[in-house]
Task: inverse folding
């Protein structure tokens, strides 16, 4: 019989790629969708899978909606990707970030524990939990030091996942994923902001690009590669926690150079530093050590940053050209 999966955050970047992966593997895919006043399914449409998903209304802040979704879907696997995922907004909306990204995980784990304890669970944890880094390369044993309300809320989500695994023997795994991007990335995140701007400037629709701290360094990979790692975690006999990363770190500045060079421009002619994009506390550098994922999941990143940025700029050139 076909397996079934429930994905929270299915309308987001990772939700869309994961849904496609699972559909291609023959899963029945249910997606939890929070009520919004406008359409949020553009990514699912871009991947051509909007009509292949069973949508269930629910919100991570409302435990009763999660219980109903679980009873309807009766999933073999739950992937908890739903979150207020933009670090910058977490200082402006710290409470809802905590409710959704932190307590929301407990709502979901409680529903699984009480209604469907054999369901396997994936938690979307993050390298933001390392924050003020305590080791040059961060792995599963590196101490955490979050630097934003988002990072703090996600750390709670991570530990409650570990706790429910240890307390109730749930098959609950936490993927500590480093930054991953794609043409489906939200426009507020720096890579997509840069690739969209490079395309607009190239096509004469924008003149400058205003950025914050371009000396920050991130370990950037391709979202399409990273959803494979999520799925692999739930196929293991034992649940566990894994760092998922490329093992290479790059400055925002060098990432800009890749994007602008691809369209024949010099980023220095267009990037303007704007203090409004500096954060109250910064994560200066992230660099993951994915050795455990390589050894136990046989997973490794397939896409270089140069390939990723090229793919994103090309997609934005097509989009801007159609406008
Ligand atoms: P994203 O594009 O921002 O998607 C977030 C998803 O969460 C959207 O579908 C959103 O729905 C949904 N959501 C927001 N609030 C919700 C609520 N109260 N109840 C239910 N769903 C809600 O994020 P992403 O990049 O795909 O990331 C997926 C997950 O991985 C997130 O948990 C993120 O924190 C985590 N993560 C991401 C990265 C990365 O680099 N991308 C790295 C590490 C961890 P709407 O569309 O309706 O707003
Ligand atoms: O693209 P960002 O907003 O991503 P950030 O803060 O690293 O968070 C992303 O990755 C996390 C994993 O580590 C996820 F958990 C999280 O959900 C999200 O997906 O910013 C990257 C860097 C930061 O240092 C930021 O200060 O770029 C710097 N930056 C410089 N100028 C900017 C800008 N970031 C944004 N968004 N916009 C700017 O104008």
Result:
């Amino acid at each position: 019989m076909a397996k079934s999966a429930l994905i929270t955050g299915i309308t987001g970047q990772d939700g869309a790629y994961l849904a496609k992966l699972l559909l291609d593997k023959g899963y029945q895919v249910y997606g939890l969708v929070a009520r919004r006043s406008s359409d949020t399914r553009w990514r699912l449409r871009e991947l051509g899978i909007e009509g292949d998903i069973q949508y269930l209304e629910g919100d991570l802040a409302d435990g009763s909606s999660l219980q109903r979704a679980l009873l309807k879907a009766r999933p073999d696997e739950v992937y908890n990707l739903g979150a207020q995922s933009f670090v910058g907004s977490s200082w402006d909306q710290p409470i809802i970030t905590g409710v959704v990204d932190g307590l929301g995980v407990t709502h979901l784990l409680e529903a699984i524990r009480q209604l469907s304890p054999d369901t396997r669970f994936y938690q979307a944890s993050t390298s933001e939990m390392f924050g003020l880094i305590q080791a040059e390369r961060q792995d599963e044993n590196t101490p955490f030091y979050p630097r934003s309300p988002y990072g703090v809320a996600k750390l709670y989500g991570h530990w409650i996942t570990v706790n429910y695994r240890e307390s109730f023997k749930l098959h609950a795994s936490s993927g500590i994923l480093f930054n991953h991007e794609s043409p489906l990335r939200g426009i507020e995140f720096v890579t997509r902001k840069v690739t969209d701007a490079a395309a607009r400037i190239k096509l004469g629709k924008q003149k400058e690009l205003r950025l914050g701290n371009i000396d920050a360094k991130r370990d950037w990979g391709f979202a399409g590669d990273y959803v494979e790692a999520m799925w692999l975690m739930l196929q293991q006999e034992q649940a566990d926690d894994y760092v998922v990363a490329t093992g290479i770190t790059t400055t925002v500045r060098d990432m800009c150079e890749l994007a602008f060079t691809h369209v024949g421009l010099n980023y220095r002619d267009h990037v303007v530093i704007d203090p409004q994009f500096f954060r109250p506390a910064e994560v200066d550098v992230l660099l993951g050590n994915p050795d455990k994922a390589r050894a136990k999941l046989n997973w490794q990143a397939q896409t270089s940053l140069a390939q990723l940025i090229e793919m994103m700029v090309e997609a934005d050139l097509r989009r801007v050209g159609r406008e």
Summary: Residues 85, 87-88, 126-128, 178-179, 188-190, 193, 211-214, 216, 218, 252, 277, 279, 282-283, 286 surround G4F (ligand 2) (CB under 6 Å). The chain has ten helices and 13 strands. The radius of gyration is 19 Å.
